[in-house]
Design brief:
By secondary structure, the chain is of the alpha/beta class. The chain is built from 14 helices and 13 strands.
Length: 374
Amino acid sequence: MKLCVVGPTYPFKGGISHFTTMLVQHLRRRHEVAFLSFKRQYPRLFFPGNATPDPSNHILHCECEYLLDPMNPFTWLKTFRRIKHARPDALVLQWWTPFWTPTLAVLSTLVKCYTPVRILFLCHHITPPDGGPFDLALARTVLSRGDEFIVLSEGDYADLRRALPEAHIHLALLPNYEAFSQNPPSPGEARLQLGYGEDDRVMLFFGFVRRYKGLGHLLRALACVPADLNVKLLVVGEFWEPESSYRAAAEQLGITDRVQMINRYVPNEEIGLYFSAADVVVLPYLEATQSGVIQIAFGFDRPVITTSIGGLPEMLRDGQLGMVVPPQDEQALSQAIVRYFCDDLGTAFQERIRAERDVFSWERMVALIEEILA
């Protein structure tokens, strides 16, 4: 089968870039794939983080053509001509933010009007976290051009069904991010490098720090955990909000000595350091549909404590691979943390994570795409 995939890859940072790259890598094992990427992504107004390229030495990348610029409509036409010339059986477009509405609306319309190519939308979010009131209408504008759809949570399935009642929608699980779990340091080495002792119990909050990620709630929950349990919080990721406000909150709560914050984008080769050092990954999200951080954690056999929103409970297989608590409930979160460590739940969760590894395989995603397009 001949496919054309459009999406970000190195040197762009973040989970969508990693996902697209791994998708193309696995599709190319069995199919001919033209990979068309971006010359640039967001203006500074839409990307408050550090806009420098991915600093990784061990880059996640595969051969592609850098064609598309959201600020230059001439590149949209150039990308369409490249798709038309490739004559693929299907075009795989990704949807995750309304920022791409003009670009993808024009591109998909041209493909629908002037080629027989089928369009498969792979939807990471129908409407994004921290979104606006018009996001669903903008999503409908673009997605109405699609022939087939893959969504990654039951919530997104319901949202897309409401937006496009007649759509052909397929539900999948976010595949694993196994590319980051190669040759990590041992837990002992990682803890020593980060300054933790043998008796410390380490929770990891990983990824971009944004309002909807709920870090403030996690700090308040940690303050309710008895100090004699030696539970420490390791916060690792680029802050999209003032780091000083979180440090001030930790100081006010009296937990400064129990919190370590590392404010920077983590290169691929360093990801294993932080996940190896952790006993559990805690993601107290206020909004979400799914999370690449959970799949990174599973790649290191690390259980997850998260909230009952979006598709996060689905990813934890109804509590089999970690613990689920209500969002914004700091008491419930602190109780889950205490129970996790006091009842030694980590070992059982890790065994189930290993047993369930195939459920999140890329082979399943590729097989679903083949089945949809057959």
